[in-house]
Design goal:
- The chain is an all-alpha fold.
- It is built from four helices and no strands.
- The longest helix has 12 residues.
- The radius of gyration is 10 Å and the shape is globular.
């Protein structure tokens, strides 16, 4: 998840692309796991923490 957060904040990749890159079978499963880890959705994380 730390690498996912890094990709979200430092690349132009979309959540679906990151989920595929990290070999999740579904972007929604990835989003659920990310939210469990960071208590915020990937898109919200990207909004607030983009460098």
């Amino acid at each position: 998840m730390i690498y996912a957060a890094f990709l979200l904040t430092t690349t132009d990749m979309k959540v679906k692309q990151i989920a595929e890159f990290l070999r999740y079978s579904d972007q929604y499963i990835f989003a659920d796991m990310f939210k469990l880890f960071y208590s915020v959705s990937p898109s919200r994380f990207m909004q607030y923490y983009t460098v």
